């Protein structure tokens, strides 16, 4: 088995999508694969990416709009690997499951043993009168992901919507979108953002930062109402107002006003009536729609996104997997990159382990995939390990595989030929995702972090203990939910470090007190008070750390006759290490000279001189 | 008065040792903790008067002559320690330094060889008997099990001369590949990172005093205020400018120096320092703060690194490292503003053990170097990257051939030219020099191990020099068991350390003030250690022991016993290597008006120190009397013109965060981090014997955040049980908000039931072989509480890590 001719054929993996999740998955998988060209190099990968660009960091597009980052810094690692071929600007148009091939727009077909769909999502375009113009409208920018319009049942997406928006109207989903918005800012004065979710607020703050008059229109009763309840939303709203972003809440946009193909204003309905807003630049941030058409066309189960089981495999075909925004796992898609990267890691682990096991058992290099049930109840460390964790061999405990759903995905053997007796032993369950639902707003001046149980839509539960500190005048609203000795949810507006600390406790499941108050009161009160007044300095306070000298030690040396910093140093060695405590020792000597009734003569001037002369600008540690 | 340096850390504070003037009575216990009565009038008049008279003098004329003394049993006199002006410590000493003379008078000082008898007891023996026994056992074990069955474990506290002689002894007399040293525990990751990025590893490639002019200094995983207190003087400038940045999961003594506007303390989740660095790099590039001209002209690989950090925007990093994204941005901008390209007066990035003693230590150092390169710092006067070396001779100790993969001069042992050169100096056949041996942790793991699938049997005999493995090695319970399983253990020490007490033969050796030699400080400055008093009768230097054993083992190889001559040989062996000492000698170091000289310091080109010539005749003496103009001045600052890489550019290498090897899980839900206290050095074998230090820090303790203590029902001072996958220990609780609520901290200087290294992990960095001392998952409970599910045996082992998704490209 060690000659080249005996090398088992490699598993051909086709990845549709070269975005943040697709490219990460390829990287994850190849980093787990053997270096090759030996038999441990088990995968050959073809990537089909619709966008012409190299993979880039889509999460930072709102930062581009805000002018905070350079576009070049969005570029993600370019894939250069002998066993991977990347086709950019090449959209997949059809899956032929019978022939196990993906057809692309230029007519070519790419055969696969395993197909991974990472097609992402596209911007959701709400059905508003005036928004859609004729496909041949002059100078209309093309909208990426336009084909998604036919997908799903979401009513606001116009069926049959084709390819164009009026000039001055932009989604914010691609690098081109971001560039066009930035370009439009040059001549625009009044900007409106429709949708006050995370992206909408980031875009609104970014446009305000560029000096535009910005109004954000939101249908919900408060800002970010998927994450924030009304009170938290109100605190965020006040901060947003201070940043120069006006808000129209519980507002429905009824018509976009377009003149000569160019947006000029809009009409909206609020509880108090109809309003007209003049608009130079309109940004649509109304959510996203999973790109699932290619899967639906192939007859795979599609709901909101491509339905996958706990091993990220389509129930309709054991060779087809979906990860990232296009997928709909049992717990639902969050649209957060953390979830997509966690799925990428898990799928890479799964495929690698399956290939290794199959090779070890059969020597034939077959990859058996699909069907292994992840145990969603098991806590995951996914997020704290940064969505990019090392592969760890799963522990002995775990869920069992469902033999009926497993399939041999080796190139030479059809699934039907596989009998249960040949199946690999039950695969220990990889960890299910947990903690990948932390939402963190990226907007200078408005800090919002939420996780787990939060917002108005949560179900009341008597086992949850919740404490909130709401301080609207200071722009601060903090809430934490504890159950079973763990943080299970939190909302932090205007308190970024508390948010970061609670994120760490939440994602890592570290033990916390049953009383959530301690989690909020401690950090709020943690501004350390330093005893600068010697009278109030405790005797055991260390004054000179280098030589373990306490205040009591210095007092004692004074009582023993030391009357200057130099004499105190002689007696205690205080100040003879780094010298950083000299100011404090000097202060103590002055204090003793002024307050100690036992001493007969005073020498504060001299001690001052000693301190100044011997210390080069070092500060005291206290 | 003898001018020498402190025996402890790599700062090597300058001090003078002298006899106590006759007129001075022995002071009372006035230096005990908490102070005491002042020194009697007239006591220590010279020193005290000097200090008082100095009051208005320049800062470098620090108070000196605070007395600390030791009575040497059988010795000539009590000795007194004086702080001495020097660029590094400016006369200051910490409590360890002031009391260092006490170790010279340790009550249990070893003064005779001890040999374990048939009854298992150690008994006094003559040197002849002890050395004969060692020679006989070494011969027999090598004959039965092969030469690699006799192994050597060195130390970063040995002088350059001893470290050199030890490596030579292992390679030419024992002919074993298996020699490594405890520097693998402290410097290996920084060395690996610097070598592959810069082509050279000198801890600080600039004088320490250069830090003084910087606008910003970022310290990652370094608690300088407790490990090298006098060095804080060099941070005063950065603090005045608000530019001291300390990255530490604990609000350490060093971190508190950032208060009051002096800087920023970032307190990340343990094990995520790398994420902090990746986020800082991200911001530097995203906000256009990098030094594009420098990257273009002096580096390679920047584009790949830039792409790799595109995925580490601050809000994502925040979710992993627990530091507010705004703080990360603020620090990145602060560093950039301090950099030369940002118009600042300079910035330094320094790493310490806190980030290096990690399974991703080399990656973290690499990220720190990448950040320094992106900001255009290395190789510029007033800016740079450096690793703060820890052990006294941690720098020199890694240059002269006691490392498993190296020969003197920081040469690679698998480089044919290096072997050829060194073999000529040693007078042996190059082919007779063994190849690379096992790195320290692996060496200790394999001690006495039977042959396994694909692995040969482990060593059966071990020489230990300058290391107290029972306390200082990770997962030390296993190390102790392995030491006990050896056929024969030889320990050279001057006190009966915990490791020495396991030995079959203990050889009593000289200590710092009893010997001549050189040390290389954290700056790469070669300095002189001088003899201030005679060693007690019955004590020998390791140099004598190597020469004697070589003779008893029938080796024709010459081993000098005069440290100055051994240094000359070392200098020849190092000639042409990265760490070139060939332009140095004891005589030159003694004569230089400059305090010490920085390597590389090659011999003058007119007098090439070719090894064959050097062997044929004594090298022309390089001394202070020689023509100064002909002498190389040493190299205070490296990389100013180019980097010693093939293309002269620094190499940027993309790395990514992987996480710790032993991470949180339900039955070990908290982090245990380890570190040091000011009063103790390393395993405490020396400092625990100084009564003043032992009184100040008598034993181990656990720092616990009050909120965690509340959660776990632990009060101040209560006994706390810490259980990891490797076992359980108990120590008293100290409640403090200085630690994160998800983390407990313990110092590691003690043996016994509170010895934290019994439960630390010995997982190692895949590139450097350095163990992950600093971090593991732990279960914490009140000792004695009945918590059946938390039995130590049930703490699960962390899943083995494949480390497959690192982006790192090992060279």
TrEMBL record, chain A:
Entry keywords, A to Z: Heme, Iron, Iron-sulfur, Metal-binding, Oxidoreductase
Start and end residues of each stretch annotated as Disordered: 396-433, 597-622
Residues of the FAD/NAD(P)-binding domain: 12-331
Coiled-coil parts of chain: none
Domain BFD-like [2Fe-2S]-binding: 543-584
Family: Belongs to the nitrite and sulfite reductase 4Fe-4S domain family.
Protein name per the record: Assimilatory nitrate reductase electron transfer subunit
Automatic annotation (TrEMBL), chain B:
GO terms for MF: iron-sulfur cluster binding; metal ion binding; molybdopterin cofactor binding; NADH dehydrogenase activity
A GO CC annotation given for this chain: membrane
Domain Molybdopterin oxidoreductase stretches: 109-551
Top-level division of the source organism's lineage: Bacteria
The keyword Transcription regulation belongs to this UniProt entry's keyword annotation: no
Biological process, per Gene Ontology: respiratory electron transport chain
Designated name of the protein: Assimilatory nitrate reductase (NADH) alpha subunit apoprotein
